[in-house]
Amino acid sequence: MEIDKIIHEPARLRVMMILAGLEQADFKFLVTTLRLTRGNLNRHMEKLESAGYLKVKRSIKGKVRNTSYQLTQEGSKALAQYWENLDAVRRSGQP
Predict the structure, then answer these.
(1) Phi-psi region at 9: left, alpha or beta (left = phi > 0; alpha = psi -120 to 50)
(2) CB 20 within 8 Å of CB 14
(3) What SS3 state is found at 23?
(4) What local confidence, expressed as pLDDT, does residue 95 receive?
(5) pLDDT of residue 51
(6) Looking at residue 52, what DSSP letter applies?
(7) What is the spatial distance between Cα 9 and Cα 65, in angstroms, rounded to a whole number?
(8) Has residue 48 got a pLDDT over 90?
(9) Residue 37's closest CA among 70, 73, 11, 13?
(10) Nearest to 49 by CA among 72, 67, 32, 33
(11) What is the pLDDT of residues 69-78, one digit of tens each?
């Protein structure tokens, strides 16, 4: 019962929780909602994407670039497993 250190970081956990409740979310929405700097959010998204937890979609609307994110099936499974493992740690009373 190992805690996923990629998800366990507070900002990334918040990202995962938001995306678990939405079909997708764009970068601007996440920056505003999470109150992170663009650079900080970008770094967290890169880590989640490289872990296979996020799918990134880049597009252009008019002259404006848009980046949106959604959880992959692997990301959804990893988040569910994270909660199971966290509950197991909590029940066992061990850090």
Answers:
(1) beta
(2) no
(3) coil
(4) 56
(5) 97
(6) T
(7) 28
(8) yes
(9) 11
(10) 72
(11) 999 999 999 9
Distances (CA, A) of 70 to 2, 36, 55, 56, 86: 24, 18, 5, 7, 23
Alpha-helical (H) ranges within the chain are: 5-8, 10-20, 27-34, 38-50, 73-92
CATH number, position 45:
1.10.10.10
Tell me, rounded to whole angstroms, the distance of Cα 54 from its chain centroid: 7
> Could you tell me the residue range of the domain that residue 49 belongs to?
5-92
Question: 3 exposed, middle or buried (CB, 10 Å; 0-12, 13-18, 19+)?
Answer: middle
pTM for the full predicted model: 0.87
Look-up of token digits 């998800």: 7
Number of domain units in the chain = 1
